[in-house]
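Q: I'm building a small set of examples for a reading group on sequence design. Run inverse folding on the following structure and report the sequence directly after it, with nothing in between.
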């Protein structure tokens, strides 16, 4: 038996009903053949529920909804434009100088997941302990994925609420992770160092975040623009001088030509915003 079992009830109000009792606080789902089941809702459900599926991960069950007619986010223009720098130290830094930290649980659960995977590898095939270890891995996988998605939704919503234009670096996450391990013919350089960074790249879930941001922005009529990330971290926002030496440390930026000093990530976000606005004017 597999550990990911999914059953789909094809139509809401037929064999299944979301929020079947609607008695105020407690949300329930009605499933034909099962009855009314209490559920814990992670996010507010918007639109019309189209399908309800029930999915098992390890020992826990989840209700997954797909919705139609999700209302557009009706937001007034703010006049705000923003550049974001996506980093390792902070999840993202804005051109206004706001540093959003990486989700705190993310790293802890990623460590737990890695430990659970090591534990699973040590268990004897076919044993009861192996089955339990596998359940634990599946459960943690799901937890990491749900937290990442939740964090992406909240962050993206905050960004689109307050800004008409959001510029970000066009990241090629797939390529970045590939380049560290390299291939058999051409092993990656600095594999150990890069895999640390790549892990953070994956943990931070930028790919997930950018997808969520794009769909929220579309629904709110906001503009999201991806810019070429080359030189955004080493160009001086004051005089335009571009040099590797401008970036003193991960956080420190001092222009070797004019002496302008600032936070490296804020400088990056400012350059991303400028490049984004230039693209939109072009
Ligand atoms: Zn300068």
């Amino acid at each position: 038996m597999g550990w990911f079992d999914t059953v789909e009830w094809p139509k809401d109000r037929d064999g299944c009903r979301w929020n079947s009792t609607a008695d105020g606080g407690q949300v329930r789902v009605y499933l034909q053949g099962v009855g009314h089941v209490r559920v814990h809702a992670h996010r507010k459900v918007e639109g019309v529920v189209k399908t309800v599926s029930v999915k098992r991960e390890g020992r826990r069950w989840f209700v997954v909804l797909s919705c139609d007619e999700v209302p557009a986010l009706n937001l007034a223009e703010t006049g705000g434009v923003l550049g974001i720098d996506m980093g390792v130290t902070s999840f993202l830094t804005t051109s206004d100088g706001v540093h959003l930290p990486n989700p705190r649980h993310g790293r802890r659960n990623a460590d737990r997941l890695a430990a659970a995977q090591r534990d699973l590898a040590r268990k004897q095939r076919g044993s009861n302990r192996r089955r339990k270890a596998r359940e634990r891995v599946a459960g943690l996988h799901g937890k990491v994925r749900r937290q990442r998605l939740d964090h992406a939704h909240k962050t993206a919503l905050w960004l689109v609420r307050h800004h008409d234009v959001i510029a970000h670096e066009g990241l090629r996450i797939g390529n970045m992770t590939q380049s560290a391990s390299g291939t058999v013919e051409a092993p990656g350089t600095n594999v150990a160092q890069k895999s640390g960074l790549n892990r953070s790249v994956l943990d931070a879930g930028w790919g997930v975040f950018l997808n969520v941001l794009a769909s929220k922005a579309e629904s709110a009529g906001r503009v999201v623009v991806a810019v070429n990330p080359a030189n955004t971290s080493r160009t001086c926002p004051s005089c335009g001088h571009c040099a590797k030496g401008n970036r003193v440390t991960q956080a420190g930026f001092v222009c070797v030509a004019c002496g302008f000093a600032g936070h490296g990530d804020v400088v990056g976000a400012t350059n991303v915003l400028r490049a984004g606005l230039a693209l939109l004017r072009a």
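The helical segments are 104-122, 128-162, 173-181, 191-204, 206-220, 264-281.
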